[in-house]
User: Which sequence fits this backbone?
């Protein structure tokens, strides 16, 4: 998408009204209800992108065609829930070193455990989850994380993926359907397609 496109002629949704996020959108048409198609600036991968989220300009980083890091953040106001997706894309031979990359991911996710291997035609997903108590002043708040190392089966490409969800305002509290959030995270993980 052309970031200079007239916002008034585009969908009245966060990804198209936010100038930075608009640069990653393939088309203003939803590819699945509530989701657009996101294309990384390296051109290395595409994935589903929620229509209530945006790419955080301050956390974006790209190096040539081999490395890209971005944070997608969204708020579900009516549910008092905030979520984010940390994505780190790499295209180099180090992506084939699965154990090294899983150790790295475990460090980022504050996790000490095993991964479930999910095999697909194009990618292999190494999935895990955990939760952290981030309560403050007796205001209960749990940070749930669903994360994966998503490796292309056909090229030295991979994405480190961390989906986090928590109450936006702990004083109001919220109900997080953990099973639903896990399914949502897995759907986004499985939507990743690598491109050479």
Assistant:
């Amino acid at each position: 998408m052309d970031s200079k496109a007239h916002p008034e002629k585009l969908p009245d949704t966060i990804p198209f009204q936010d100038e930075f996020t608009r640069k990653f959108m393939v088309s203003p048409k939803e590819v699945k209800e509530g989701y657009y198609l996101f294309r990384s600036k390296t051109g290395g991968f595409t994935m589903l992108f929620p229509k209530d989220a945006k790419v955080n300009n301050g956390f974006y980083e790209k190096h040539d065609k081999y490395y890209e890091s971005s944070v997608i953040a969204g708020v579900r106001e009516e549910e008092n829930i905030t979520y984010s997706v940390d994505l780190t894309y790499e295209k180099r031979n180090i992506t084939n070193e699965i154990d090294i990359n899983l150790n790295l991911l475990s460090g980022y996710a504050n996790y000490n455990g095993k991964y479930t291997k999910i095999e697909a035609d194009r990618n292999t997903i190494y999935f895990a989850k955990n939760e952290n108590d981030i309560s403050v002043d007796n205001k209960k708040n749990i940070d749930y994380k669903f994360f994966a190392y998503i490796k292309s089966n056909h090229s030295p490409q991979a994405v480190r993926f961390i989906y986090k969800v928590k109450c936006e305002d702990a004083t109001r509290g919220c109900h997080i359907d953990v099973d639903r959030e896990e399914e949502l995270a897995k759907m986004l993980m499985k939507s990743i397609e690598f491109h050479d």
